[in-house]
Amino acid sequence: MHPDRRLTRNQDAVLAVLQEQRSPLSAQALYRLMRDRQPMGLATVYRALDVLKLNGLVQHRVSLEGESLYSSIHQDLHYLTCLHCGQSFVLDHCPVERLEDQIQTSGSFKVYYHTLEFFGLCEPCAHPAAPTPSTVHVDDESTADGEV
Ligand SMILES: [Zn+2]
Ligand SMILES: [Zn+2]
Question: Which of 12, 14, 114, 126 has minimal Cβ neighbours within 10 Å of its Cβ?
């Protein structure tokens, strides 16, 4: 963020609330949280988020339902999202940190944040009514090599 840019009280309050969150929030949810802190209209919440985003303080990702979810820039989280049940699982590390460093040090682009998300099926959705593990490979021995 440019040192000469100062946040308004509303922008500051929105940022403070986002920094306390463990997972990304929709603007609506943020708006509801702000009511106890520093009440402001939903349009003001959106405007504050836009300013914060342009200043590299807030990032957002879009959920499967098309809803924008906002989080502090310091939460570098990556997700595995199941297309069937819609659950998102957090990846335990950032696989592109080095790449971001390289782009940053090249000097030709100021990186604020990156997003990376994998889509597919989670284990229960990929194997509905899955048999217990002990029965999974029961047929292995009867499969002869020549049958392929
Ligand atoms: Zn699933
Ligand atoms: Zn990352």
Answer: 126
Direct distance between the N- and C-terminal alpha carbons of the chain, in angstroms, rounded to an integer: 61
Angle between helices 27-37 and 9-20 (to 10 degrees): 110
Whether this prediction's pTM lies above 0.85 is answered by no
Name the CATH superfamily housing domain 75-125. Ferric-uptake regulator, C-terminal dimerisarion domain (3.30.1490.190)
Query: Where do the domains of the chain lie?
Result: 1-73, 75-125
Q: Give Dmax (Cα) for the chain.
A: 74
* Local structure of residue 132 (DSSP, 8 states): P
Least distant ligand from the CA of 89: 1
Report the distance separating Cα 39 and Cα 103, nearest Å. Answer: 39
CA of 88 to the centre of ligand 1 (A): 9
Please check whether the two domains, 1-73 and 75-125, share a CATH topology.
no
Eight-state DSSP code of residue 84:
T
Q: What is the CATH number of domain 1-73?
A: 1.10.10.10
Q: Any idea what DSSP says for residue 131?
A: P
Interval between CA 97 and ligand 2 midpoint (Å) = 6
